[in-house]
Specification:
The chain is mainly beta and 145 residues long. The chain has one domain: Beta Complex (Metal Binding Protein, Guanine Nucleotide Exchange Factor, Chain A), CATH 2.170.150.70. Helix content is 5%, strand content 34%. The chain is built from one helix and ten strands; from the N terminus they run βββαβββββββ. The protein has a seven-stranded mixed β-sheet with strand order 6-7-8-9-4-3-10. A three-stranded antiparallel β-sheet has the order 1-2-5, with no helix packed on it. The longest helix has 7 residues. The structure holds zinc ion (2 copies).
Length: 145
């Protein structure tokens, strides 16, 4: 992978982001919130420092959903096409971009999170954390595949 600049966008293209550098971590999240939000069996997550994510277009075309008022996950989606665009974690200054929406990203599953809530099993030999990744405050407890 190169230390380049990438873009990501929603399905209709109204919202465009610029991402600088490489994601800090990439992994599959199996939590109930991600699965329902994306309508998918798991969420391919790529975490950037929020400082490395800027809008190229469409910031005012996003709306925010928080599952609970105290949650640290601010889920932002395009009001035109409904695509998930970013999940902001302001308390840790990380922004999670759905990896499938990032252009020219060489995605690699480094680990799995919230595997206790899994909908599908993935036997890829990667660590299966029970909850959050330890880097963002989770415990180091891992589950069998
Ligand atoms: Zn859109
Ligand atoms: Zn999740």
């Amino acid at each position: 992978m190169s230390d380049g600049v990438r873009t990501s966008s929603c399905l209709c293209g109204a919202v465009q982001l610029q991402l600088t550098g490489e994601p800090m971590i990439m992994g599959l999240c199996h939590c109930d919130s991600c699965r329902r939000w994306l309508g998918a069996p798991t969420h391919a997550s790529a975490l950037w420092s929020s400082d490395d994510v800027v809008f190229l277009a469409g910031e005012d075309n996003l709306t925010t959903f928080k599952r609970s008022p105290e949650t640290g996950s601010h889920r932002k989606f395009c009001m035109t096409c409904g695509s998930p665009v970013r999940i902001d974690h302001p308390t840790v200054n990380f922004t999670d971009i759905p990896a499938v929406s990032v252009n020219n990203l060489e995605y690699e599953t480094m680990f799995h999170t919230h595997y206790a809530e899994k909908f599908i099993s993935i036997r890829d030999g990667r660590p299966k954390f029970k909850g959050f990744h330890p880097m963002v405050g989770g415990e180091d407890e891992q589950l069998p595949e």
